[in-house]
Inverse folding.
């Protein structure tokens, strides 16, 4: 028994490493300028995979139906952006407010250069997670007394409030008001350039995958630890969990804080992906997108969330793009194809998927559980 | 004093105008098997819920191993509504949550089985070990608690072997036959390392043979784990066979107490169970 568990762990680890290697190879073989969609989908997929897994930790493993994910992402994204915009760029970015209230930049504090960049970005991402976690800790006490739908509504409201607060003019010198924060290091900053400024090794997509992979791995470790088991017990039967000595409020809060931490990190990564951070992008619709990914992937399945994140992003951003363009076949205009039609087809596809996979693509199983039956690609992480 | 594991003192539980448990006094001594019986709706499970922290009593106190763990007095609107006795004798409001009571050393099972349905037999028992884990979330996530985890798993395996569920340890808890689910629930409670085991109708829905097995099983675990057992039961065979002492509740009031022989011949108990005709 123990032996087989070990084996599958190694297999998963190998798959993940192979996937990371494949990403590096793909990125350096394909011309990114001709395949913008592919790499955008991969990066966004990696970010969404992380956020979806963090949401799954709460919704799927602890049984707390929370819809605050976009709000926590926003906190992470802004923290990341505010802490990493180079000091020299601050006046340009904050031109409306005559400069920024925060006049340092973490990558520069760490001495600049490659080491400064890596350390600064990591520190800013982690701090972004910490800010989200701290806020989750504060609102967790009142909010987590609520159950199911009521909790969802309360957290949804929280997301809206956060978005409004960050657009508040008075906070302009810090948040840049309703304007976007930009000029901070993005995934592309991790491409390695030679002295002449030519890119010799592209690592931008790899960076996204690596960061998301590490975070997801930590979440998986947590889920399989004694605390993860306690979370599942709360999901399955709260009364029994409490009777068996599991402190409900402490453990729910813990799950909420950890989930928010990773949502915050995911938010920072989203800012890196989007090259900018702006409060109006972190809407409730974004939370729903992530919820959709969790549901399609399977509530209670980490690998399901990962697979669904990539499928969802690829389908909505890339594969169905052709539906948006007016197309002429033999001089005749194809009916229906016009801007926006993509989303109509996409919604239908999602309805069909949900109809045929009632418990999501993976149910509550993980990829290794399916290994014996069929070798599905390691698209997990 | 030290012999006294559980002491329920003047406990009244009133819901609105309904007095579910009325001035209940009982004691359970170390190593005993004590039963609480009574007709349906007599307030047995309510008494259990007060002891384990699910409900806070309206008035009264509960002592566990010589320590007062629960105490309350009528508050707010209840001050006017309160119908029980001993008002004003209690002044504190002590209300531990059920998980705290469990960590103090009191574990229970439920009348309608409450296993964690999506978990295996092994995991069901392992999760109950969580409350005894010393590791924090960080050390648990990064596997710095290997030793503790390994020891927990070993303990759980041992426990499953003791209760005879080792052969089904990897099956889903809900796929077990009814009798074994009951047994698993007891094993899960034992995993929390209790001093006092509370069983809420452990033989509910069991046939005579299963009941007999269960009777032997309860005696066995009492001896093996040096437990004190307090149980609610309807199966008189079981109760009379294993109980050292019995308390009888009717309409929330204690109507009799004593050893099985005395209870069997108690007039009020017979009345409560069989009813008396109007013109008698």
């Amino acid at each position: 028994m123990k032996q087989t568990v070990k084996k599958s762990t190694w297999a998963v680890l190998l798959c993940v490493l192979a996937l990371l290697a494949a990403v590096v190879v793909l990125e350096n073989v394909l011309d990114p300028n001709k395949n913008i969609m592919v790499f955008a989908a991969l990066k966004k997929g990696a970010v969404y995979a992380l956020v979806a897994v963090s949401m799954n930790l709460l919704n799927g493993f602890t049984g707390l139906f929370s819809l605050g994910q976009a709000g926590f992402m926003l906190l992470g994204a802004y923290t990341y952006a505010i802490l990493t915009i180079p000091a020299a760029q601050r006046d340009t970015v904050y031109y409306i407010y005559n400069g920024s209230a925060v006049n340092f930049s973490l990558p520069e504090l760490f001495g600049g250069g490659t080491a400064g960049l890596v350390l600064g970005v990591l520190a800013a991402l982690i701090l972004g997670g910490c800010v989200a976690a701290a806020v989750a800790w504060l609102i967790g006490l009142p909010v987590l007394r609520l159950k199911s739908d009521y909790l969802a509504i309360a957290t949804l409201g929280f997301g809206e409030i956060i978005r409004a607060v960050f657009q508040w003019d008075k906070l302009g010198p810090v948040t840049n008001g309703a304007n976007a924060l930009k000029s901070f290091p993005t995934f592309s900053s991790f491409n390695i350039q030679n002295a002449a400024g030519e890119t010799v090794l592209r690592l931008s997509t790899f960076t996204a995958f690596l960061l998301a992979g590490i975070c997801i791995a930590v979440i998986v470790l947590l889920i399989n630890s004694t605390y993860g088991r306690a979370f599942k017990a709360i999901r399955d039967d709260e009364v029994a969990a409490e009777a068996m000595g599991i402190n409900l409020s402490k453990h729910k809060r813990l799950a909420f804080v950890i989930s928010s931490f990773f949502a915050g990190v995911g938010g920072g990564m989203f800012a890196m992906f989007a090259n900018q951070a702006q409060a109006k992008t972190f809407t409730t619709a974004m939370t729903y997108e992530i919820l959709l990914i969790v549901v399609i992937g399977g509530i209670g399945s980490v690998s399901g969330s990962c697979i669904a994140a990539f499928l969802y992003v690829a389908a909505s951003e890339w594969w169905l793009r052709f539906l948006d363009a007016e197309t002429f076949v033999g001089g005749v205009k194809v009916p229906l194809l016009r801007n926006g039609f993509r989303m109509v087809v996409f919604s239908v596809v999602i309805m069909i998927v949900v109809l045929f996979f009632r418990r999501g693509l993976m149910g509550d199983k993980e990829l290794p559980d399916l290994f014996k039956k069929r070798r599905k690609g390691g698209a997990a992480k | 004093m030290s012999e006294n594991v559980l002491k329920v003192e003047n406990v009244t539980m009133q819901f609105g105008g309904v007095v579910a448990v009325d001035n209940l006094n009982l004691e359970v001594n170390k190593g005993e098997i004590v039963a609480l019986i009574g007709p349906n709706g007599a307030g047995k499970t309510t008494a259990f819920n007060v002891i384990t922290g699910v409900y806070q009593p309206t008035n009264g106190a509960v002592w566990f191993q010589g320590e007062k763990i629960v105490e309350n007095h009528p508050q707010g609107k209840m001050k006017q509504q309160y119908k029980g006795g001993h008002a004003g004798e209690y002044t504190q409001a002590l209300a531990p949550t059920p998980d705290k009571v469990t960590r103090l050393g009191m574990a229970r099972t439920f009348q309608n089985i409450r296993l964690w349905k999506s978990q295996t037999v092994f995991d069901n028992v392992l999760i109950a070990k969580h409350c005894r884990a010393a590791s924090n979330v960080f050390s648990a996530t990064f596997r710095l608690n290997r030793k503790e985890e390994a020891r927990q798993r070993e303990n759980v395996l041992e426990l499953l072997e003791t209760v005879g569920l080792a052969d089904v340890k990897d099956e889903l808890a809900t796929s077990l036959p009814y009798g074994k689910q009951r047994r698993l629930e007891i094993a899960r409670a034992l995993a929390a390392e209790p001093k006092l085991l509370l069983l809420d109708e452990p033989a509910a829905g069991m046939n005579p043979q299963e009941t007999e097995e269960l009777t032997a099983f309860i005696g066995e675990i009492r001896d093996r784990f040096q437990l004190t057992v307090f149980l609610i039961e309807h199966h008189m065979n079981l109760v009379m066979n294993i109980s050292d002492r019995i308390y009888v509740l009717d309409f929330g009031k204690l109507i009799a107490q004593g050893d099985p022989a005395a209870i069997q011949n108690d007039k009020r108990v017979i009345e409560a169970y069989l009813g008396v005709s109007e013109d008698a």
